[in-house]
Design a protein that fits this description.
Layout (H helix, E strand, L loop, with lengths): L3 E8 L3 H11 L2 E7 L5 E6 L10 H13 L2 E8 L1
Antiparallel strand pairs: 1-4, 2-3, 2-4
């Protein structure tokens, strides 16, 4: 089975909403946030069945990162 990657160019304030919608879809394995230069800022593995309390720390970290970035690329690795 191969993994597929999708990339989204977003502004900092759009990141959290996009990640929430990706998590709802339920087929993402990993989320990577890159800055404007293409350097990886953060990587978050998503386990199957992760809900509620398990996602809160991830969203808090993403919120902090989003506050520092004006433009970024969100890479979503899917099954």
């Amino acid at each position: 089975m191969t993994n597929k990657k999708e990339e989204f160019k977003l502004s900092g304030n759009e990141i959290i909403e996009k990640i929430k919608s990706i998590i709802k879809e339920g087929n993402a394995r990993k989320i990577i946030i890159k800055n404007e230069n293409g350097e990886t800022i953060a990587e978050f593995p998503l386990t199957v069945g992760a809900v509620g309390a398990l996602l809160a720390p991830i969203l808090a970290a993403v919120g902090a990162i989003a506050g520092l970035l004006t433009k970024c690329t969100l890479v979503v690795e899917k099954k």
